[in-house]
Amino acid sequence: MSDETKKDSVSEDLARLFGVTPEELIRLFDLSEEQLMELDEVEFRARTRERCHHTMEIPTYESAYFNTPLPADQTATIEKMLRVWDKRGFSHDLVEYRFATTILGFAKKRIAGEPVDLSAYEPKRLTPDEQAAFDCVLYERRSIRQWNLKRHVDDALIDKVLKAGLWGPHGCNLQSVRYMVIREDAEPGLFEGSDVPGGPIHIVVMQDKRCYQANPLMPEFNILLDCGAATQNIVLAVHAYGLGGCWLTFSDVMRERFVRHFSIPDHFNVVTYVDIGWPDQSPCPIWRCEVEEAVVYRSSGRPQK
Ligand SMILES: Cc1cc2nc3c(=O)[nH]c(=O)nc-3n(C[C@H](O)[C@H](O)[C@H](O)COP(=O)(O)O)c2cc1C
């Protein structure tokens, strides 16, 4: 199969998967330089992440792993984005530029038929002690609803927790998660209505909807899951770093009050929040149902329920 024919069949498969025509797929994703110049900056950066991920990162790794050829124009989309990046005067220090140029280096090697050495990126395998520490984080985390309000939590520690959230997986690498960090003593009463008295620090997890314009075909479920994945990392990191936290719920009334108080612009979805602080209780962990009960079907040809 020629490179062109192979690419056509890939876009036809993709179009079929999302229920659109191949022409519509091109219209939605393959923007001209002029259109890219006009895009809102947040959307443009999200598009750079998304295009890098789908048009270069995945095919390049596939080519490197299976030692299959990579078409010469596989990098065209991202090279166009990087040209526009420069025309718009964005910094080369921004993460998507650094990532895209790294993957571009790999892709060019594959196009030239050279191997790509990814050994430097091989994840470190955990030792048995490290695996035990991971189990400890996973199974000893529990929701903490009372905190030692006299003990200050430094911004540096909060930032470690926020960073853990950003390292959660994101649909299409859109990276839409944004935070607001509220100290109760500095801005009291904003979370009134919560069913727990409230921690000294509230981490509000939001999404920048402009990132989702970069993939108009993103299934709606993914949108909330991005925030869920970040928040899960947050509660694990809180426990791992010795803090205590509870994932909490905005009622509609609380969310509206919060949005109004900060005049949060429409492009942010205020999704959820976590209260954190130094723990002042040690509740019994809530036992989980057994794996057998959770698995309603297992592909052994023998349905379990
Ligand atoms: C989406 C979500 C919303 C939650 N909302 C609340 C809440 O409003 N109030 C609360 O006390 N706990 C809330 N929790 C915490 C759960 O009650 C808690 O995770 C669950 O009971 C399991 O306990 P554990 O976290 O100690 O393992 C929430 C958890 C999630 C994932």
Shape label: globular
Give helix % range: 40-55%
Can you summarize the main beta sheet? 4 strands, antiparallel
Number of helices: 11
Low-pLDDT stretches are none
Please state the structural category.
alpha+beta
Number of DSSP strand runs: 4
Major β-sheet strand ordering: 1-2-4-3
Q: List the helices and strands in order.
A: HHHHHHHHEEHEHEH
Please tell me the total number of domains.
2
CATH architectural name of the largest domain: 3-Layer(aba) Sandwich
Give the end-to-end Cα distance, rounded to a whole number of Å. Answer: 45 Å
Which radius of gyration do the C-alpha atoms yield? 23 Å
Average pLDDT reading: 93
CATH names the topology of the largest domain as NADH Oxidase
Walk me through what this model shows.
The protein is an alpha+beta fold and 305 residues long. It has two domains: 31-111, no CATH class; 128-277, NADH Oxidase, CATH 3.40.109.10. It is built from eleven helices and four strands. The protein has helices at 3-18, 22-29, 33-38, 41-66, 76-87, 95-111, 128-140, 155-166, 220-240, 252-262, 291-294, and strands at residues 177-183, 201-208, 244-248, 268-277. The chain has a four-stranded antiparallel sheet, covered by helices on one side. Helix 4 packs antiparallel against helix 5 (76-87). It is globular, with a radius of gyration of 23 Å. The model has no long low-confidence stretch (mean pLDDT 93). Bound molecules: flavin mononucleotide.
